[in-house]
């Protein structure tokens, strides 16, 4: 079952919860995603697992317990670098993340370093996600559909950049000390728009800018001008942006109607479904680690160099990865 992509596993679970049998599930998924997207046998295997009460979509651990040599290697890896993530350890050792996590806890390790999360998804939000996933996954000519997506977001960029990572340590131990960040660091807001081909438009916003409906409306107009200059052949625009209050106001809805842009559904508190968050900003964050900027001109020059260094494939990968996350 490990060959089944995660987005198809979500579809199989949806069909199971909807009350269809495995054969009907395979037929429905293939109708939406294309012939051969999933085999009847694969659906039967997953349905059997769901009926047994295992609703996890992760691969089950390798048969049997990890070899002692693997457990010892895990211990050595984590002692050598406590900042390794379960994803990184999974790739190194060939076991799924839940297995790695379980054995780390069996070793008495705990993951220390508080992190703020935007919001905990409710059952209604999860159901909304499933509905949105299915509507997007059922799109015909999906590759062209993805190529028509324009996405964007904002991000604070610090003048002095530190980094902090979770560390696996013994419960009684403290994580290795790291420099404390300034409570009020000097920073500037980056606003950026991009698609499969690359950056379309970006700017550093003036200090104390409030992103309200009026300001965002002007940004959409700026984006339109940039699209006309940089993507003159583009006829269809599918906009994927956040849906916080300024972006769903009546003024913005009217502006988008005037622009004749299709707005793709996007749930709030879902950075894992926003290409800027899970792809572009992650690379930018890695690029900025330990960098110090004396002034905005220096910072802006560095950002420009970074964006120009990214190949087209980088942007394609970020957008084309969306179906795996749906």
TrEMBL record:
One of its GO terms (molecular function) is single-stranded DNA endodeoxyribonuclease activity. Residues 5-54 form the Mos1 transposase HTH domain. It comes from the Eukaryota. InterPro entries: Mos1_HTH, RNaseH_sf, Transposase-MT_Hybrid, Transposase_1, WH-like_DNA-bd_sf. GO terms for cellular component: condensed chromosome; nucleus; site of double-strand break. GO terms for biological process: DNA double-strand break processing; DNA integration; double-strand break repair via nonhomologous end joining; mitotic DNA integrity checkpoint signaling; replication fork processing. This is Mos1 transposase HTH domain-containing protein.
């Amino acid at each position: 079952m490990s060959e089944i992509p995660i987005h198809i596993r979500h579809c199989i679970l949806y069909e199971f919860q909807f009350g269809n049998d495995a054969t009907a599930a395979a037929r429905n998924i293939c109708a939406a995603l294309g012939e051969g997207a999933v085999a009847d046998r694969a659906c039967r295997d997953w349905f059997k697992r769901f009926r047994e009460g295992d609703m996890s979509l992760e691969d089950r651990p390798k048969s049997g317990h990890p070899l002692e040599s693997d457990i010892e290697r895990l211990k050595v890896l984590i002692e050598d670098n406590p900042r390794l993530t379960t994803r990184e350890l999974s790739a190194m050792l060939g076991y799924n993340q839940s297995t790695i996590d379980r054995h780390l806890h069996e070793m008495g390790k705990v993951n220390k370093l508080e992190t703020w999360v935007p919001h905990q998804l409710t059952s209604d939000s999860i159901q909304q996600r499933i509905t949105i996933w299915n509507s997007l996954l059922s799109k015909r000519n999906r590759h062209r559909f993805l190529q028509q997506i324009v996405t964007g977001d904002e991000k604070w960029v610090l003048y002095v950049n530190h980094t902090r990572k979770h560390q696996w340590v013994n419960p009684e131990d403290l994580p290795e000390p790291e420099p404390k960040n300034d409570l009020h660091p000097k920073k500037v807001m980056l606003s950026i728009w991009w698609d499969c081909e690359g950056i379309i438009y970006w700017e550093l916003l003036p200090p104390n800018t409030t992103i309200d409906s009026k300001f965002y409306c002007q940004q959409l107009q700026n984006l339109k001008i940039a699209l006309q200059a940089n993507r003159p052949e583009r006829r269809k625009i599918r906009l994927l942006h956040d849906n916080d209050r300024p972006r769903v106001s009546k003024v913005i809805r009217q502006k988008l109607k005037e622009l004749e842009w299709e707005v793709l559904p996007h749930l709030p508190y879902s950075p894992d479904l926003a290409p800027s968050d899970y792809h572009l900003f992650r690379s930018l964050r890695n690029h900025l680690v330990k960098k110090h900027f004396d002034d905005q001109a220096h910072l802006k020059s560095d950002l420009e160099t970074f964006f120009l260094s990214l190949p087209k494939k980088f942007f394609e990968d970020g957008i084309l990865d969306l179906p795996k996350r749906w």
